[in-house]
Amino acid sequence: MDIQKSIRMASDTGSVLLGHNSSVQSINQSKPKIVLIAKNVSQDVMIDITKKCKLAEVPYYIFEGTSMELGSICGKPYPISVMSVLEEGDSDILNLLK
């Protein structure tokens, strides 16, 4: 599975929320199918997001790239620390859960 291709496809054809604040709001409503977290986020953000995901029973995945790489993959010219996938579209991103 090509994770980068799956992320790009999800952001292009699915419904995603980008950023810490938007993702926290979606997690609190148990809406995301999966949450991706860049590996270089601050320890506080990592703890906050993972704790909220566990409490809301929302699966999460630590993306092995940086927030700048995640932003680039999503076609954005800025870093993205957290990405919530509400609808996967044509991607196979939910295979990360297996």
Layout of strands and helices, then pairs:
Elements: H1 3-13, E1 15-18, H2 20-28, E2 34-38, H3 43-56, E3 60-63, H4 67-73, E4 82-87
How does this structure look, described?
The protein is of the alpha+beta class. The chain is 42% helix and 19% strand. The protein has a four-stranded mixed sheet with strand order 1-4-2-3, with helices on both faces. α2 packs parallel to α3 (43-56). The protein is globular, with a radius of gyration of 12 Å.
Helix-strand makeup class: alpha+beta
Q: Low-confidence runs (pLDDT<50, min 5 residues)?
A: none
Arithmetic mean pLDDT: 95
What is the share of helical residues?
40-55%
Q: Which sequence of SSEs, written as H and E, runs from N to C?
A: HEHEHEHE
Query: How many distinct beta strands?
Result: 4
Features:
4-stranded mixed sheet; alpha+beta; 98 residues
Short précis:
The chain is an alpha+beta fold and 98 residues long.
